[in-house]
Amino acid sequence: MADDLARPGNGAAExxxxxxxxxxxxxxVQILHGVSLDVRAGEIVSIIGPNGAGKSTVxxxxxxxxxxxxxxxxxxxxxxxxxxxxxxxxxxxxxxxQGRIVFRDMTVVENLEMGAYTVREKAAVxxxxxxxxxxxxxxxxxxxxxxxxxxxxEQQMLAMGRAxxxxxxxxxxxxxxxxxxxxxVELVFEKLEALKAAGMTLLLVEQNAVRSLAISDxxxxxxxGRNRFEGPGAxxxxxxxxxxxxxxx
Length: 249
Fold this sequence. Notes:
By secondary structure, the protein is of the alpha/beta class. Helices cover 36% and strands 25% of the residues. It has helices at 55-62, 85-90, 108-114, 122-135, 137-141, 152-164, 182-197, 209-215, 233-238, 240-246; strands spanning 15-26, 29-40, 44-48, 70-75, 78-79, 93-96, 170-174, 202-205, 218-223, 226-232. It has a six-stranded mixed sheet, with helices on both faces. A four-stranded antiparallel sheet has the order 2-1-4-5, covered by helices on one side. The radius of gyration is 18 Å and the shape is globular. It starts with 14 loop residues before the first strand and ends with a helix.
């Protein structure tokens, strides 16, 4: 679990999503310095670390929003390094961006339909929507409501549901509990566990590191764009160094 023990890539043959030696940044500013991690089917994997550690940059590099300077991104055995974002999404990677981004003037149903823009069969879209409503009953209750009139927590549920509409094999989530009232923070983590129970694979960047690790199969701690610690979520929570440096003691 410590930085000198289990290294990224253990169990690589089982990895659904894997990044190796990733270097990326913005313009001339390099943020990631050789980051590696893997996500296996059915897992929740968390990336934690201080502000500026490069957590969101990892997700954007996977999605092709940032073109890596070096390293490899592999999904389902296929190299997707630097692939255009829409092509990454079509291969089965969903994304919930930071900040509860929804189409405010559209209804809940219309927002969900936007998440299924790559799906041609109407029956498949309806089936996905039914599944979203089963996981998020509150969205079903507000299906005709404009997204902009919903609470922040409800908008986050909608953003999460929209990412499921194309039936992705893995979903990347960037700070899903950020800025939410405590009641909705609890609800977000309940829904993350429900998604895993439904067979979903999740890669989670989350500022609430304690809660995130508590529900995660495994976690990675980044520091200054580098792998610092990794291991089972429970082990990271119990590690004195991780608790002191990243979890507030």
